Amino acid sequence: MSKPHLVGSKSSFTLAPELLVKMHDLMVRTRSLEERLIKMYKQNDGFFWIGGPGEEAFNIPLGLLLNKGQGPKFDYFHGHYRSMGVLLTLGAEPIDALRQMKNTATDPFSAGRNFCGHASIKKWNVAPISSPIEVQYSIAPGTALGNKRAGDGLTVVTGGDAGTAEGDFATCLVWSSRPGNELPILIVVTNNKWGISTASDTQHGDRVIADRGKAFGIKTMVINGNDPQESYLKIKEAMDYIRKEKKPILMEARVSRLYGHSSASGANFVTNEEDPLKTFEERLEAAGILSKEQMKKIWEQYNEQMLADAQKVRNEPQPAPESIWDHVYCGQKGKPGRYV
Amino acid sequence: MSKPHLVGSKSSFTLAPELLVKMHDLMVRTRSLEERLIKMYKQNDGFFWIGGPGEEAFNIPLGLLLNKGQGPKFDYFHGHYRSMGVLLTLGAEPIDALRQMKNTATDPFSAGRNFCGHASIKKWNVAPISSPIEVQYSIAPGTALGNKRAGDGLTVVTGGDAGTAEGDFATCLVWSSRPGNELPILIVVTNNKWGISTASDTQHGDRVIADRGKAFGIKTMVINGNDPQESYLKIKEAMDYIRKEKKPILMEARVSRLYGHSSASGANFVTNEEDPLKTFEERLEAAGILSKEQMKKIWEQYNEQMLADAQKVRNEPQPAPESIWDHVYCGQKGKPGRYV
Amino acid sequence: MATMIQAIRMALAYGEQHLGVTDVYGEDVGPPLGGVFTGSMGLKTAWNSPLDERGIIGFAIGLAMGGQKPVAEIQFVDYIYNTIDLLKIAGNTTWATAGDWCVPMVVMTPVGSGIRGSIYHSHSFDAMMTHIPGWKIVMPSTPLDAYGLMLAAIKDPNPVMFMKPKALLRVRPPAEDMLIPGEPADEKVLKDMIDAPLGDRSAWKPRWPKLEDYTVEIGKGRIRREGSQLTIVSYGRTLPLCLQAANELAGEGIDAEVIDLRSLWPYDWDMISASVRKTHKVLFVNEDTEVTNFGEHLLRRAIEEFFYELEAAPKLLAGAHLPGIGLADALEMASVPQLASITAAIRELAAEVP
Amino acid sequence: MATMIQAIRMALAYGEQHLGVTDVYGEDVGPPLGGVFTGSMGLKTAWNSPLDERGIIGFAIGLAMGGQKPVAEIQFVDYIYNTIDLLKIAGNTTWATAGDWCVPMVVMTPVGSGIRGSIYHSHSFDAMMTHIPGWKIVMPSTPLDAYGLMLAAIKDPNPVMFMKPKALLRVRPPAEDMLIPGEPADEKVLKDMIDAPLGDRSAWKPRWPKLEDYTVEIGKGRIRREGSQLTIVSYGRTLPLCLQAANELAGEGIDAEVIDLRSLWPYDWDMISASVRKTHKVLFVNEDTEVTNFGEHLLRRAIEEFFYELEAAPKLLAGAHLPGIGLADALEMASVPQLASITAAIRELAAEVP
Ligand SMILES: Cc1ncc(C[n+]2csc(CCOP(=O)(O)OP(=O)(O)O)c2C)c(N)n1
Ligand SMILES: Cc1ncc(C[n+]2csc(CCOP(=O)(O)OP(=O)(O)O)c2C)c(N)n1
Ligand SMILES: [Mg+2]
Ligand SMILES: [Mg+2]
Fold first, then answer.
1. Each residue of B274-294: pLDDT tens digit?
2. How far is B44 from chain D (nearest CA, A)?
3. d(Cα B92, Cα D115) in Å, to the nearest integer?
4. Which of A159, A172, C31, C159 is the most exposed place for a label (fewest CB within 10 A)?
């Protein structure tokens, strides 16, 4: 990929142009992947699509700010099915997401077992993404305690707004704020104001979800997750506080849901929500940081790459039936007897 | 029981003396019952004791203010294992509590099946008290919706402070405050600062539990549950609001735990917590409403009654083994086949 | 000629109109969606709940106690596992109170494999559910039975678990089934009356047919095929496969009786007994994982009562004892009974000689 | 001569000192109480958690993923039923990630009847737990086995469910058991070293004996009595009762073999097979409710493999299929197997002739 030329001019940005360009690149890459996944679904190259288009302006900064590595000295990330942007930013390869979409044997996240977007990357402390809403909030405090014991690492957990109605969200607040045993954890709610077909204002008396942290003495933040610069700065501020104080923060990020809930609701682009990538591109152009031309090229490159990758994946093998017996237990392969 | 003579003098009370005398009477009755239950346990007339000594100053006013009856036009009460004072105030007979303690066949609450204090009185909308902590908070909003549809009834749910760490407490807040579908429910936490052996300030970042309602727009109150007058006035205020507005209130009542957690921790009187009944008696005497003599007599009468009742219960039959098959299903008795 | 999901929807409409159903609710159950499988589209008492399964079950118990008649939905049974304590409470309240309270509530939830649902949209629940006393448990395999069992569930004064086999929700009824009393014979006419249009449906209202009462008694199975040589007992998704296998094997001279259990608890032991006493061979088929499986209970009971009459070891064909069902075709196929494995199991049983 | 609860405590102390256990936690697990059954008294990593079972299990998964080695307690198994989804996640994480993550955690929890625990302190969990793939599951019936199984559980890289039979926690070891390696022979000496005093214990510290490694391999049963005429397979509370019944019945000329399964998953099928192939009769005993019961799985497998070798119908003796165990003596006695019912079942099986 050729480096775009940086135009140093007046801008509405305070972040360095290099960083903005990098974020833009990663956002396009992520969106391009999601759109390829949707196409695969529509072309019958996968049974189900769910993903994060509309959350790039939050997910990419988050991925950039995570301290990547394995074990409790490094940050843990407990994401959900809209988190692929975070993972790509950490360094995951788009083709691996396509593999999971196509449930190939080569899918490194689940060997063809799990839905697309349900990744797992232990070497970078990316916890397995599983379908049940909100359980990650009961689990994440555990890795945060590991972090606290090992040094300056922290744990990030994310999930949607509707899911905060599950008790696990409260569990996360309780376990993260035990007096004298506060945990270094960034508790994120990506609020798109929907749970599938259900509008949040019909269900949530807690109109500002972040306010739920206050009773626990947890510092709270509400941010515009559609603005990558604001996201970057606020996540950084939050992480600095958490690493230093070893205390939780509850952050609500307002985001968009650009292709509806999932393929079950059609996976078509919606026009009545802000597209954070479009907004960002307008600002980048206005600030003279990237030209329309340059951005178009980036899009084209990624779109081509995704298409090529998808074609490659199409020819990869499906998992063998007998593979179902592998990995019931740690390190186990094959079926030793009547049962594993 | 002979009516005590009312001395009308200056007092720290604003409630009518008749009401204060009635509350005192019911508080003594409740305490006397609990102390008899503890004695029964210690004399091997029961396997386990748990109860509410220390919560009378809250429970009796609550019982007095409930609108008793069957069905959604009337108030529902979802209590827990420290709620016997509420039930006695509604009109339950102490001897029935002794029967449950002794797990006799005559135990009207569970026919010898459940622990003492685990009552159920459908004819007065008293929901079954069950052992699992906090589940009543997930259940109570349902009866509150029944209330809302039927008229001016409301639902009261109570439980301890430690139990609010369960997700069910959050569930109760969520379901009670859905915008446009708020429920007429009084959500009570009786905070004695303990969960068995665990001090609440070691576990609860939410130092004021009632604050958890605020994010949901739920009106909150923190009251001195050791003061029967304050309890009465505040519960009344809360109920008036709920009946009128059809909206929830979250009330935290600070109470004492006077005999430890249960018989498992010895069930011995603790001296380092306020005894609300003792405080009340001192105030009643100071106000000239009841004399020491009068109060002593009330105690004696109840203590005698409880003893006599306990002796009676001792001779009542234990449940028959084959009774286990009854009531698996609504209205069913006996074992029709290989299985019920 | 309703599909099963239409039949369920009509039963709920009948329930609202005639049986006092007050609330049909759960995640995305109300407008605009009307359920992820359209099971509650257009119902007048349907509403969307918070995303909180514990709340959904708890609320149903409360509604039942509060004089209401709820039908609560868990969107996928895969998400019911944080509510087992509440299901137990619904099931033990009458017993624990020595009959004081009854808990008349219905929980409905899609179960099983068949839609490439991967790890969390493929669960079966028959094993755990039959281990929870105090409930009645049903699972239809035809639209008519779905209608009749839903009405029975609504009328029952106890908690009833209504399991909807995902794979069969859009399948047409078998030829031998009569119409649901009141439904138009033409499926297009029906669709026009009760299915919401695509796109904006805010102004849409269903026109329910003049539905009639029709109850399938809980606890009664149904012989879907009579046979003399062996008995197959199944329910839900695997039932039509058993039937198909039995019909196909008839050509090989294997004459199998196929029982649709329909009610898992209480279950129709009289029907199973009579059949096994006739055939002396029995195969139990379901798709839950096979360890501590409800079919093992039925098999144990068969052993208890017919050990000396059996002419072959009774068999269970069930799902692989694995943590999940994988997404890829081959994985799902290898994990739960399919036509081929059912056919093989029947053949094997038929061939077994003592 | 430790009791089982002392043995567990010593195993946890050994685990802290030598096996990297970082957290022993749960409700009232830390000081001052050290567990409602004293199982974690004096442990240096023991701490009290919020009253939140979902939090306890979720946190354990997180700790395991975060490089820690947790032993989490659910105070009574009766309160585990709102965490089944999380137990399933602990059990499916390795499989769902195709081996990427392992989840090395131990959950310990008291199970079963025997203390007049009424409806919510008497639950058994073997049926539901064995229906959750991906776990290992153990339940000792002697102090030595408890010690050895706890060390095995801690060393295992998978989630392990350690069920503590409530009724046996304070029982002394059987005569044939050796001492736990390192423990003093005199129970008073041991008590003095590791049991906290009554009253104020804020200054108290345990003096742990110089404990040694001793592992009971998960998946291995133990023949507690050799016999030739029939096989009894049990575990937990009912095991000593089976043993007592077998010993008493020896006088009547009934020679029963008694297998303590010890591990429920994986279980020692080799041991069961060898025994049944010898005796041709088998009785499975446990106290969980009898419908969709783990003993039904074992019985089904026996039928699958030995149908034609059995000289009597294999039997299951288990708990009544009821919503709870009642408080009154007579109710508890009538609900779960006791010495009398076990004895009767053995007699009946011994007398059965084809
Ligand atoms: C426990 C559970 N219940 C239900 C579902 C089905 N489901 C999948 S996504 C979803 C809505 C989630 O909404 P929200 O938490 O706001 O996240 P969003 O999808 O809007 O990002 C539901 C109900 C599930 N996956 N898990
Ligand atoms: C779900 C559940 N977990 C654990 C227990 C065991 N238990 C009984 S009472 C109790 C402490 C309750 O504390 P709190 O809620 O503050 O009420 P309190 O007893 O102090 O009134 C515990 C842990 C239980 N009954 N239910
Ligand atoms: Mg959302
Ligand atoms: Mg308390």
1. 999 999 999 999 999 999 999
2. 13
3. 29
4. C31
